[in-house]
Amino acid sequence: MAGTGKFFVGGNWKCNGTKDSISKLVSDLNSAKLEADVDVIVAPPFLYIDQVKNSLTDRIEISGQNSWVGKGGAFTGEISVEQLKDIGATWVILGHSERRHVIGEDDQFIGKKAAYALNEGLGVIACIGEKLEEREAGKTFDICFQQLKAFADAVPSWDNIVIAYEPVWAIGTGKVASPEQAQEVHVAVRDWLKKNVSPEVASKTRIIYGGSVNGGNSAELAKKEDIDGFLVGGASLKGPEFATIINSVT
Ligand SMILES: O=C(COP(=O)(O)O)NO
After folding, report:
1. ipTM of the assembly?
2. Ligand 1 centroid vs 163 CA: distance in angstroms?
3. Is 166 a catalytic residue?
4. What is the Cα–Cα distance from 150 to 143, expressed in whole angstroms?
5. With contact defined as beta carbons under 8 Å apart, do 92 and 102 qualify?
6. Which of 61, 98, 130, 166 is catalytic?
7. Each residue's pLDDT tens digit, 184-224
8. What is the H or E stretch that residue 51 is in?
9. How far away, in angstroms, is 234 Cα from ligand 1 center?
């Protein structure tokens, strides 16, 4: 877990798939030839993690799409970190914009979730990103730094964290950030880490981009120095295209 690869690519399947469609997706992923220097995770819907874990190549790790803020118990509908570990997950996505803006999770709650997951041994894919109106108001960095700070104030260490910059206006819209737009924010995030955490954390933390990444645009994005991989939604549901994206980062 945590991975030693220079690059990191995740497939966030969100609330998609059936037993049959996931079986086909796993079969496509098992037959894909994947570049060595890329750590790869997939985040199935919780119900299908066991099926995926028991059929997918060990080359690809399993991530939860979310996790509860503490130990399990009387929290109807929640999935605990302990249960994710029990079923073989080694990562969890936290702070996804759909959890922030659809479900209503706030920065501090997400920070607490990250701290608990890390303390219990999961790697965390920490999502940040601004809404269109925030970008248009010139607040992109303010929002991203505010969300970053909530993670930094809570986490015990940065050893097992990957940061995913996912501008909300690019998620699911087909309006991918330009390589320049993404690089500008990634550089600012790395600089924030350098100033507010440490130069070592800034240089070793992988900062990945998410938001309408596909097999046609990933290579151009990956050329940017501070784009260390991707968190892919829709395109990760297509095995061959997700493999193309994975292999485009090296
Ligand atoms: O939410 C996303 C990105 O989704 P899309 O690739 O479908 O824009 N990643 O977590």
Report:
1. 0.99
2. 14
3. yes
4. 11
5. no
6. 166
7. 999 999 999 999 999 999 999 999 999 999 999 999 999 99
8. helix 49-53
9. 6
